[in-house]
Amino acid sequence: MGMTVVQKILARASGLDAVAVGDVVEPRVDLAMSHENAALVINQFLEIYQGIGLTPKIWDPSRVAIVFDHRVPAESPKTATNQKKVRQFVAEHQICRFHDIRGDVGGICHQILPESGYVRPGAVVVGTDSHTTSHGALGAFAFGIGATEMASVWALGLVLNVEVPPTIKVEVSGTFPDFVGPKDLILKLIGLLTAEGANYRVLEFHGEAIRRMATSGRLTLCNMSVEAGATSGIVPADGETTRYLRDEAGVNDPLKPVAPDRDAAYERTIELEVSGLEPQLACPHTVDNVQPLSAVAGRKVNQVVIGSCTNGRLDDLAIAAHFLEGRKVAADTRMLVFPASSRIYRQALERGYVQTLMRAGAVVMNSGCGPCLGVHQGALGDGEVALSTTNRNFKGRMGNPKSEVYLCSPAVAAASAVAGAITDPRADGDHEPEEA
Amino acid sequence: MARVVYTLGDDVSTDVIYPGRYMATVLPSETPQFAFADDPAFSGKLKAGDIPPGSVLVAGKNFGCGSSREQAVSCLKGYDLVVVAGGFARIFLQNAINLGLRVVGCPTLEASVGDEMEIGDAAVINRRTGKRYSTLPLPPSRRAIMDAGGLIPYTRQRLAAMGRQLR
Fold first, then answer.
1. Which value does ipTM take for this structure?
2. Do B38 and A401 touch (CB under 8 A)?
């Protein structure tokens, strides 16, 4: 019996010829990422070494990445003190892949890792963040773990007791209509699967619509795979992966793409056709409460948010600028934009997107997790409604349990910002799609 | 014997268990004060000491979905709660095992606040109704970590074994 991509990666990383679903393996880790919660990882890491007569030592500091993004710049003395502690640890343990709060190399971890060339096809990537699934976009097996698990990885270089997960094949055919794209596809899929439909499973993406999709869109798909419970989402590496890593991430060394065997065993196959896909929204208060746009069009929105690890990349900001060019954000609506990385922010400045968005009335914030997780920046008032390109809409997610969050694509968000209500970007007559 | 103190539905997210705005607090000794912080009635009871150790939260499927934040486990562990749910999201379950929070998968359970439960390895018995419900077995791989007392002692054992190999 053949193997899926993740089976092949786990076999290689575990020093085995083959693995089957349900096998327990201990894969070697190629990349171990944390954000501010490195402060907790450090505590647990030092705890491991209590009373055993060994000096705390990271198995391979060159494979550890730490990116400050969740609360940047620090919103409180407590966060600032945690960040200070992490900086000291980073220096002591010679962790080079450290991305501090900076306008040159800073940003959101799930954008920094790909654009810095840290993620390679076939790698095992773990992160103390559930959206670590993002990195499957480059053909890696990437999944979220807790802080104590990460402390164990830092000590051993292995993830202990990984059960080889079953894989669901997602076969996507057709061509996206104008202003419908990867976000609508993944929301549609989450609605079909439900929030636990892919629990303990991998989503492996195939089909012409995926092959034609840029890495940016694949990152959106894999990012949100966890919202259906998936351990990981993965797009088998192809020519587009090589292009991205060579041209956008500066990777020059040889790549080892991993393809599934022809007779790989999938738990099941889900077939989707996107040519007739309508824009999709996740409605309050669960990500799997997905409706086509027509079901919620006209709902008034107080705050529109475009950005995050899900949809804060250059093509997302380009769509936002396209809809806001020469127009205004509705008077009683606020629009917040936060690019996925400082590099993307600078690119958006060079292309004039930032100026377009600001002239229209949007506030362009620094790169970071910002409003998405309700820590600081962009909290909602009681009874307010947000429309956001982020990845979660759980009750209280944006800092106020008495508010509502709808999730959507950048096109829906931008068109709705102008109208002040949920609006179909395809029907936004003044704005014909640009010639490709 | 353990009393059910709260019942919740499906897909209880870590944002509900431990809201994101308290994530700067990381120490297990400090996280319990923010358990269910957006649910004032229940968090009030927890903080007032009205919930005895060993009390049971009953929930539906996919408990702990969402963020990987370990605070969502340590805040419950701080009150020595037991979570009996229809199922658990992957990262939450692993975190619970790693930190030693008692979690039991029991998809068919019927229980109300105030019911006394007998929680065993193979079954949960509701003493009020007398009904017995089978539990989901934990995979042996996770059992090993639980038996070691959590991932920290388990990792210590592994480090010691690696050290012996080196010598």
1. 0.95
2. yes
